[in-house]
Structure formats: C-alpha cells, structure tokens
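Exercise 3.2. Students should predict the tertiary structure of the chain below and write it as structure tokens, then compare their answer with the key that follows.

Predict this chain's 3D structure.
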Amino acid sequence: MIKKHLVPCTVILALLVMANVFTYTLPKLKISLKKDGLTTIILPTEELAFNIAQLEFADENLPLYDKKVNSKMKKILASFSYKNLQTNRLHRKAASWFPVIEPILASYGIPNDFKYMPLVESGLQSGTSIKGAAGYWQFMPATARRFGLKVNGVVDERNNLKKSTIAACKYIKKLHSVFKSWTLVAAAYNVGDVHMKKQINKQKQANYFKMKLNRETGGYVYKLISMKEILENPARNGYKNQSAFIAYQETNSKLAIVE
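Answer key:
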C-alpha cells in the first residue's frame, strides 16, 4: 500500500522541484499613462539585479574576460555608491546640466555618454585645480583659448556651461580624429593628447583597457562608466531620493523611470 502511494508522491515532488527551478518571477511593474503622453514605469524600491557585463562607454564594451578589468570596474563602481558619496547633488546637477549639454554633443556627432564627463571633472568637486584647470569641463587656460574661450582677468568662459561645452566638443572631435576610439579620447582628454600618443607608441597598444597608465588616467573611463551607471540606475546603487533627476527624465523622455 505504501509503495502504491510512494510513486505518485515522488513524481509530484519532482514536478514541484522542477517548477521551482525553471520558474522566474518578474518584478511587479506598475504602468500608467499621463495626460501629456509620458509613460511612467514604477519599479520596486529594492536593489535590482545587475550584470556588470552590461556596462559600456560610448558603445565600447569592457573586456570583462579580463579579471583585472572586472575587479577594477567593480571597485570604482562601488566607490560611486550612495553609501560612499552620501549625496544626491549629482542628480540635481545632471537635471540642470544635461538639457544644455546633450543637444550640443549631438550637433557635433559626439556620443551622448560624454555628458557624464563634466560631472566627473567638476561635479564631484568645484573650483580651480592645482594645475589651473577650471570650469565645467576643467579646461587649462591655454587649451580653453585654443578652442575659442575667453580667459582673462575679467572674463572666464570656462564657467559658461554652453560655451565651454561647445569648446569641449571641438576638442573631443579633434582627439577622435587622432585616436579613433572614444575610450582613448576620454583618456587623452584627461592626460593630454601628447602624453597619450607617447604611451600608445611606447606600449605598442591602442586599447585603453589593456594599457598601463597613471592612476588617475587609468581609472578615468571607469569613473565615467560609474557615473553613467549611478545616474541611469540610481535605485540599484543605493540612491533613494532622486526627485530632481526624475523630473529631468520626465521632461526630456517619453519613458520616465521612478521609484
């Protein structure tokens, strides 16, 4: 009698185990249509699962088969988490700066991801650097003048967001004509084109992620990727209050993601 019941019980148990293994529950989403045509998707507030392989800069992916690159990316991304920065001012700056920066980048044919550069250059800390770089894009005086900005005792257009962004686009476009890679362009912007050329020739290597560069430049693109990640996906990086950035998204996109 026991054997008769044992077989169907075993089959039922096996089916339950298989159902548990192969079933994936999607996060519950609430979708609503507003009168102005915007679609709002409300995501759960818990931290979202995330694959580091999704990270990229200007459509250039990280070689994540490389353990050193993987480890470095995770380390720098962790340093940009809310737990470490403890501030939402980056989201407020993004909401204020991006509407000015984005159309200028587009008009020069420069990837939208470069909008994160001013946040890395001057968003984390303001003022003039020890070397004399200043403004949203942290131009040195000579470089600023070379690309059309007025820098003198009376006027400093490095502090004008629109004009300095135009100058930055001219510089970035020039760098791309030389290096042909957006990650190398970003690195060259940080360290200077002359130094970058020397390192490429010396190392006989033109892949940013495989090059041995000084600490600041070697981590620069990783910082840009991290800045992009915390602004595009704030909830999964510990940011709980992003009202200013949400307002920016709702104003400039038909798809607004909020908590």
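Discussion points: The CA atoms of residues 13 and 19 lie 10 Å apart. The chain is about 55% helix and 5% strand.
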